[in-house]
Amino acid sequence: MKSALIARYLVLTLMAVAVLLPFVSIVLAALHPAGAQISGLRIPETWSWSNFAEAWDKANFSHLVLSSLIIAAGVVPLALVLATLAGYSLATLDPLGGRPISVAFVLGLTLPIELVVVALYFDLNQVGLTNSYTGVILAETALFMPFGVYWMQTHFAAVPRELLEAARVDGARSFAILVRILLPISWPAVTTLGVLYFMWSWNQFLLVIVLMQDPNRRTAPAGLGFFVGQYSTDIPLLSAASLIVIGPIVVLYLLFQRNFVSGLTQGAVKG
Questions:
Q1: The domain 61-269: what is its CATH number?
Q2: CB 30 within 8 A of CB 52
Q3: Could you tell me the keywords of this UniProt record (predicted)?
């Protein structure tokens, strides 16, 4: 038993090192003087914190980060509300055609964005929604919906039917059951989905590049792509810019770490 526990902790330690080692190497590279040649995990002789300010100015992150936040602030709540309502309906209300609709959402998980992005551009262009935050928000919401509906439907389907029937016997309507009974016990699942939505929206690259022609209204990852093309040989500057882009996701995960882990594992502990 003790050897098995030691082996388990050893495997987890090795996995943690494998995950953290690339991040540590990027941090160390970002702290070297700009233009320095870097090899391996070499600790800088001079700690150059100015790389972050220089990367922020040269990549125009003031506009790009704001644009990313605006898009994520529109996508996350809209997608969460729609996915929750759809998942609740499909899992508990037995709507007409619910089974084919559920299958369609699952099949939507296999649809790559590369397959539809060109057609999506022309469709949104006809209604004047290209080069606008609204168009990107609606497109990303639709793109994320299959996973969100599947996630929430699976969660609500695991709730005991007796709980729902008792609420209906007491006279609660469907919307009241969702708001007053299911959502309070579904906070880990909703929070986890919200973190995933924010991460996917923040990291979205191809869709933003195609739909947003104004460089100042593109997102931080899209701006980083152009920044890499301009400063491909300046590793410290590129590392600093990369850390600026991934920073919000790391902070968000640390803030919601408990709920995120609980939401991912809640289905595995049900008897």
A1: 1.10.3720.10
A2: yes
A3: Cell membrane, Membrane, Transmembrane, Transmembrane helix, Transport
